[in-house]
């Protein structure tokens, strides 16, 4: 557990970066620190490993004042990942990851073997261990940065905008990878970002900071979206927070309806012309696309005769996916699949909206029924 108790930081030039701030990061959870540039996020993060000392107040790690620990010893239990990975350019990937364990006395051979395992764990191939950082893409370098921070198996990870230098697609992949790793490893993570979407995706709790190092709100992401504490947080979380909140509403009670289906490879005799949209499935019952109403199939049904479908909603995942599936489908019918991708049924946007309404105002809906 990391605890900030009324910490304040004033730099020598008089600038106050953090203003009497109290915050607790529970063990085994991810807390995202988010806010505009210069609001004190990095300052706060670096107080944990004593790269920066507070002007007043206390930072506790598992109940112990960090000031009572020698910084070098303290940092052994704290992984640190920064933007653009900060790798040693003249060491191979494997040696970058093995450096810290070797400093702690692990044999070179053992440290390298562990490094190779970690390299795979963060989603890179073992062969990449022999390359130099400049021979990797930005996203791959970030993965190495994460592997290096994990190498000493620290219970705490500090991550300072670790993914902000890569493009959005790679970034999303790195975020997913971190979530997967975190499920496995259960570290106590403090994650700095200026991107509210990243904070909401990764944080079990999100701390929104505003200029001058004030804590504007500290809450789980769904609460932040549902009940922003003030105008600053409201504008910071953005306009479509109502829609984004659906990411945290489960889809229990969603009742997919049947729809006419055909299979790829069916002949025109099997596929009579219909006035309704027809969903085409493959041999594994997975949706492949839609057949337009009244479309005539010539010969066998092939994929190029289909209109590409919208997004798919997996049964049991949050309601946002169900609404998106309905809104993005050419037929207006959101396709619902099971965990294996097999077709289950369809939902309309109206159906999803009714469910949302019932969740938000249960009494009202019951009264109307
Ligand atoms: N060494 C320093 N000396 C003086 N002022 C500093 C120092 N480091 C940071 N500051 C100031 O403290 C404030 C907070 O800086 P900090 O780097 O913690 O913000 P941040 O929220 O991480 O910003 P960014 O998102 O831009 O990285 C800023 O106004 C900054 O200019």
UniProtKB/TrEMBL annotation:
Cited InterPro entries: AAA+_ATPase (IPR003593), ABC_transporter-like_ATP-bd (IPR003439), ABC_transporter-like_CS (IPR017871), P-loop_NTPase (IPR027417)
Top-level EC class: translocase
Ranges for domain ABC transporter: 2-237
GO MF term set: ABC-type quaternary ammonium compound transporting activity; ATP binding; ATP hydrolysis activity
Pfam families: ABC_tran
Gene3D superfamilies recorded: P-loop containing nucleotide triphosphate hydrolases (3.40.50.300)
Enzyme Commission identifier(s): 7.6.2.9
UniProt-recorded name of the protein: ABC-type quaternary amine transporter
Species the sequence originates in: Actinopolyspora biskrensis
């Amino acid at each position: 557990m990391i605890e900030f108790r009324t910490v304040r930081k004033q730099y020598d030039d008089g600038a106050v970066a953090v203003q009497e701030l109290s915050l607790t990061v529970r063990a085994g959870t991810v807390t995202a620190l988010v806010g505009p540039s210069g609001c004190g996020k990095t300052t706060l993060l670096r107080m944990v490993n004593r790269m920066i000392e507070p002007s007043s107040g206390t930072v506790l790690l598992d109940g112990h004042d960090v000031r009572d620990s020698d910084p070098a010893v303290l940092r052994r239990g704290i992984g640190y990942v920064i933007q653009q990975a900060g790798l040693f350019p003249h060491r191979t990937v494997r040696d970058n990851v093995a450096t810290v364990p070797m400093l702690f006395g692990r044999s070179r051979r053992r440290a390298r073997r562990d490094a190779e395992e970690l390299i795979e764990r963060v989603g890179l191939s073992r062969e990449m261990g022999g390359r130099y950082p400049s021979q990797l893409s930005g996203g791959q370098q970030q993965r190495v940065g994460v592997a290096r921070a994990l190498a000493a198996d620290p219970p705490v990870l500090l991550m300072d905008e670790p993914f902000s230098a890569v493009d959005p697609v790679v970034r999303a992949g790195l975020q997913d990878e971190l979530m997967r790793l975190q499920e496995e490893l259960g570290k106590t993570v403090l994650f700095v970002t200026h991107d509210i979407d990243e904070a909401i995706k990764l944080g079990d709790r999100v701390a929104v900071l505003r200029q001058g190092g004030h804590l504007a709100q500290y809450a789980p992401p769904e609460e932040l979206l549902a009940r922003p504490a003030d105008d600053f947080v409201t504008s910071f979380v953005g306009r479509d927070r109502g829609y984004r909140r659906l990411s945290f509403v489960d889809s229990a009670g969603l009742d997919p309806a049947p729809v006419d289906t055909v299979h790829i490879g069916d002949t025109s005799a099997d596929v009579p012309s219909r006035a309704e949209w027809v969903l085409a499935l493959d041999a594994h019952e997975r949706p492949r696309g839609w057949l337009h109403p009244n479309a005539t199939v010539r010969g066998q049904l092939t994929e190029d005769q289909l209109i590409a479908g919208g997004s798919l909603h997996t049964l049991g995942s949050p309601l946002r996916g169900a609404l998106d599936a309905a809104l993005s489908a050419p037929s207006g019918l959101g396709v619902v699949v099971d965990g294996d991708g097999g077709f289950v049924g369809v939902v309309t946007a109206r159906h999803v909206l009714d469910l949302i309404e019932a969740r938000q105002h249960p009494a009202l809906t019951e009264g109307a029924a």
